[in-house]
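Marked as duplicate of an earlier ticket. Keeping the data here for the record.
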Amino acid sequence: MAYLDFIGRLHGATTRDYVQRVVDHDKAACAEVALQYGQDYWDGDRKFGYGGYRYDGRWLPVAEQLAAHYGLKAGDKVLDVGCGKAFLLHELTRAVPGIVVAGIDISPYAVAHAKEEVRPLVRVGSATSLPWPDRSFDLVISIGTVHNLKNFELRQALAEIERVGKDKKYIVVESFRNEREKANLLYWQLTCRSFYAPEEWQWFMKESGYTGDFGCIFFE
């Protein structure tokens, strides 16, 4: 299991006022709305989630890094667990022409508004029960998703990702390296259910039988 950072620069490009988010809004009420993963979460007010999650090409460098690191080529099959609007899947098809992609997300709204070019290739479903046979994909990715699961659901999701993938897998989770980053994460998050430091994430993944790579998002 290797620690790899493909999205740190992308994540760090967004400015966040952690404390103000709690001061300005009823955080609990906002989280209740966010956890519905509907229009408000994706395209509503920023207090409920993304504040408008629109395609702008920012995921292409991430797709290119993934393709280069994992040696993706035409005909390879890639699954994105928690694909959202499938922007990364679309960019993977640009980075590696001829690649075969699939995605799954808990949000019917996200799937209905997925990038048009890959919309027929994504479906609504849960990370804890992936509807594909064993070893179906050359690469399985899951970015910013599994930390939204309770620990018993998380273990099941990791087992499912391991089951449907071959040898290449990559998961990105929200995490913290110190007390300031932990406080910032708690201020900012709306949907997170599993809060672990990187070493705890690594332990949990190994204990769950996950053999792929992982990375973390930090709220500095």
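See parent ticket for discussion. The chain has a mean pLDDT of 97.
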